[in-house]
Design goal:
The chain has 254 residues and is an alpha/beta fold. The protein has one domain: Rossmann fold (3-Layer(aba) Sandwich), CATH 3.40.50. Helix content is 40%, strand content 17%. The chain has 8 helices and 7 strands, in the order E-H-E-H-E-H-E-H-E-H-E-H-H-H-E. The chain has helices at 17-28, 41-53, 71-84, 110-131, 157-177, 198-203, 207-213, 227-233, and strands at residues 8-11, 32-37, 58-62, 90-95, 135-144, 183-189, 245-248. A 7-stranded parallel β-sheet has the order 3-2-1-4-5-6-7, with helices on both faces. Helix 5 links the parallel strand 5 (135-144) and strand 6 (183-189). Helix 1 packs parallel to helix 2 (41-53) and helix 4 (110-131) runs parallel beside helix 5 (157-177). The radius of gyration is 17 Å and the shape is globular. The two termini are 29 Å apart. Keywords: NADP, Oxidoreductase.
Length: 254
């Protein structure tokens, strides 16, 4: 695929798991990378070192993307980092940051509903709104959806509902920004054996086997299955793909 030399990407939640893998694959293609993290400064610094070892510029910015309180200050931080690199704009936004939660429908606390909305939907919309003027024409926006908007797992009802909103927002945003040549797509992973799901698998160790048995390719997903898809959607070759939900589940419950 076309390299991404000279491009700048921002990946929210890029210090670990799917965000880090996406950063690595974009860096392998030559993009300079800015990641965000919430608390784990050590993991963020390690990710930056890893990316720099791949021959690109990298930086980590701390921000808590639960709601709107930090978005204005983060936008200024981000502009400052771009200026450090003698840039005013960037090219690729990967909206990866998010949280998970599971409750039976009748036991969903209102506070948890608010937290999932603020983090997984509200902040994504408002951050994208704040940063859109800084994205170059013909840029790329990639959001992280989930396979759970196609198949159901009852305890994830609120999480999946928020992700459904994100996937619908993706389609509408693609229509809105198409006039600038900016593509907007969602990647929807299936079950992934990573730290995001570690607590769930610890509580239900049989879940990995169930996922593998119901997947056409015969195994549970891995973090490294998703990063290359994100990198493809950021490439020139994906320039005619927009407004799409790309499920990457290995064929779960076909």
């Amino acid at each position: 695929m076309t390299n991404l030399n000279g491009k700048i990407a921002l990946i929210t939640g890029g210090s670990r798991s799917l965000g880090r893998n996406a950063a690595q694959h974009l860096a392998n293609k030559g993009a300079d990378i800015i990641i965000t993290y919430v608390r784990n400064e050590e993991a963020a610094a390690e990710t930056v070192r890893d990316l720099e070892a791949r021959g690109v510029r990298a930086a980590a910015l701390q921000v808590d993307l639960e709601g709107s309180a930090s978005i204005a200050s983060f936008t200024e931080q981000f502009k400052h980092q771009l200026n450090e690199w003698s840039a005013e704009r960037f090219d690729i936004l990967v909206n990866n940051a998010g949280i998970t939660s599971e409750h039976p429908f009748g036991q969903i606390p209102e506070a948890e509903l608010d937290r999932l909305y603020d983090t997984n939907y509200k902040s994504l919309v408002l951050l994208t709104q704040a940063l859109e003027p800084l994205i170059n024409d013909d840029g790329r926006i990639i959001t992280m959806g989930t396979g759970l908007t196609r198949v159901t797992f009852a305890p994830m009802v609120v999480y999946a509902g928020m992700k459904a909103a994100v996937e619908t927002f993706t389609r509408y945003l693609a229509q809105d920004l198409g006039k600038r040549g900016i593509t907007v797509n969602a990647v929807a992973p299936g079950g992934i054996d990573n730290d995001f799901n570690a607590d769930r698998f610890e509580k239900m160790p049989q879940m990995k086997g169930i996922l593998a048995e119901n997947t056409a390719l015969g195994r549970i997903g891995r973090t490294e299955d998703i990063g290359p898809i994100t990198a493809f959607l950021a490439s020139d070759e994906a320039g005619w793909i927009t407004g799409q939900r790309i499920e990457a589940s290995g064929g779960f419950k076909l």
